């Protein structure tokens, strides 16, 4: 780019307007003062020339590349992709008035340029919005290579370009999108995103849709000052996970909420591979999960959900406070034995478990009149009373697969009470499964 010396600019203004050079210099200095030093004297000289209608360089009528632009160019056309937007900010001039300044960065194949907007011109920068079918957009993005993606919106149509993949998706006016609800941001907690999603994974699949008891179709959260308890049940089994909070909270009291199962699965999908903390806000009828994204011009990802109305059942009553029989065994062996027994179970998915502390035997049995039967004895540490009880093998398998430790605890109470699965060395999780009653 060719820069015109300020002396030449003053000379050209003098020749075309008849103003004295001293007057022109004073106007340039006044402009620098008015803009509170945000432009140099050279920049102010260009502004004064433009305000006085003095064309410093011959106007260009063709579109030019960014690297072809020269200082003082007027009446030219150029094009580039907007790669960054700096928000409008205000500043106080030395004369007491308030000014506005904003800028954008545009790029083409030859370089980049920063475009600055002053005062009323800042309104030129406007926020763009469009509503796009989420499932179509998500499915298309998931099929793209791991390369840069370009988005362009024109007349409610979204154009997407990624290497050899190009598409246009018809959208709707952003005004048709539902109003995003406001949520009270005074009550919040911070929690590690990976830890939260792993905890949700352990209980989220237990709940099932229910029109008669909608409260148990969601996931129950109890927020306390230093702990979160997450619970889910379908009346046949129950999972409970407790998380200790190490970070700041603003809680002045306990909050109990029922979150839709679909929302918890969206939390896992969106935040499951993120690092760092999620900030959770909640109110009597809404919850918001917020993840900061400082690397973009957008401050965060937000997921807002309504809560399920109703009171969650007092599930603590069904969790056994003590046991008559306890077994500790290798998780992989127990899992494999239940899978094998499931091949021979009847229509109700029944497998029988028998613990004999006296003979130190733990056996698993299943049978079907149409198929045959299966019986095995597996190693286990057994203490307490002898017991024989039947469970649904599918519910047992779900509980075993949720536990991450190499050894697993099974606690039983008589032949008709619920069983409890726990990881060895971890008191933060338990899985309660109801037995199959003998006919």
Summarize the structure.
It is built from 8 helices and 25 strands.
Structure notes:
The protein has 439 residues and is α+β, with helices and mostly antiparallel strands. It has four domains: 119 residues, OB fold (Dihydrolipoamide Acetyltransferase, E2P), CATH 2.40.50; 43 residues, no CATH class; 128 residues, DNA Polymerase III, Chain A, domain 2, CATH 3.10.150.10; 115 residues, DNA Polymerase III, Chain A, domain 2 (Roll). The protein is 21% helix and 36% strand. The protein is built from eight helices and 25 strands. It has a nine-stranded antiparallel beta sheet with strand order 13-10-11-12-25-24-23-17-21. Strand 6 and strand 7 form a beta hairpin. The mean pLDDT is 87.
CATH evolutionary superfamily of the largest domain: DNA Polymerase III, subunit A, domain 2
Mean pLDDT: 87
Task: Please give the domain count.
Answer: 4
Output the CATH topology of the largest domain. Answer: DNA Polymerase III, Chain A, domain 2
Low-pLDDT regions: none
| Main pleated-sheet profile | 9 strands, antiparallel
Q: Can you give the helix content as a percent range?
A: 10-25%
The outline comes out as elongated
So, CATH architecture of the largest domain?
Roll
Give me the number of helical elements: 8
How do the strands of the widest beta sheet line up side by side? 13-10-11-12-25-24-23-17-21
CATH class category name of the largest domain: Alpha Beta
Query: In angstroms, what is the radius of gyration?
Result: 34 Å
């Amino acid at each position: 780019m060719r820069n015109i010396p300020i002396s030449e600019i003053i000379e050209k203004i003098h020749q075309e307007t008849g103003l004295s050079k001293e007057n022109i210099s004073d106007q340039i200095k006044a402009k620098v003062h008015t803009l509170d030093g945000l432009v140099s004297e050279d920049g102010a000289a260009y502004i004064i020339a433009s305000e006085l209608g003095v064309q410093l360089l011959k106007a260009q009528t063709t579109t030019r590349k960014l690297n072809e632009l020269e200082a003082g160019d007027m009446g030219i056309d150029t094009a580039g992709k907007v790669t960054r937007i700096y928000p409008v900010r205000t500043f106080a001039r030395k004369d007491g008035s308030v000014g506005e300044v904003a800028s954008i960065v545009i790029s083409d194949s030859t370089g980049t340029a920063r475009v600055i907007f002053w005062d009323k011109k800042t309104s030129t920068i406007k926020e763009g919005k469009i509503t796009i079918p989420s499932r179509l957009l998500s499915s298309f993005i998931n099929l793209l290579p791991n390369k840069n993606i370009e988005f362009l919106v024109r007349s409610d149509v979204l154009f997407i370009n990624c290497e050899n993949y190009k598409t246009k998706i018809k959208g709707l006016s952003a005004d048709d999108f539902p109003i995003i609800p406001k949520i009270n941001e005074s009550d919040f907690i911070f929690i590690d995103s990976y830890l939260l999603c792993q905890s949700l994974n352990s209980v989220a699949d237990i709940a099932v849709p229910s029109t008669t008891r909608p409260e148990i179709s969601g996931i129950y959260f109890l927020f306390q000052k230093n702990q979160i308890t997450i619970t889910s049940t379908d009346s046949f089994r129950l999972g409970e996970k407790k998380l200790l909070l190490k970070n700041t909270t603003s809680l002045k009291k306990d909050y109990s909420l029922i979150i839709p199962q679909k929302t918890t699965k969206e939390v896992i999908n969106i935040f499951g591979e993120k690092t760092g903390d999620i900030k959770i806000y909640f109110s009597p009828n809404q919850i918001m999960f917020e993840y900061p994204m400082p690397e973009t011009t957008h401050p965060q990802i937000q997921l807002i959900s309504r809560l399920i109305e109703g009171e969650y059942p007092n599930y603590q009553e069904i969790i056994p406070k003590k046991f008559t029989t306890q077994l500790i065994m290798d998780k992989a062996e127990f899992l494999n034995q239940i899978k094998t027994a499931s091949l021979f179970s009847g229509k109700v998915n029944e497998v029988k478990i028998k613990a004999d502390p006296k003979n130190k035997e733990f056996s698993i049995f299943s049978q079907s009149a149409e198929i045959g039967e299966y019986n095995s004895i597996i190693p286990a540490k057994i203490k307490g009373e002898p017991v024989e009880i039947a469970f649904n093998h599918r519910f047992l398998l779900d509980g075993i697969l949720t536990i991450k430790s190499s050894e697993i605890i099974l606690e039983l109470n008589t032949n008709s009470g619920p069983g409890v699965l726990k990881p060895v060395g971890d008191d933060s999780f338990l899985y309660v499964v109801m037995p199959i009653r003998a006919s």
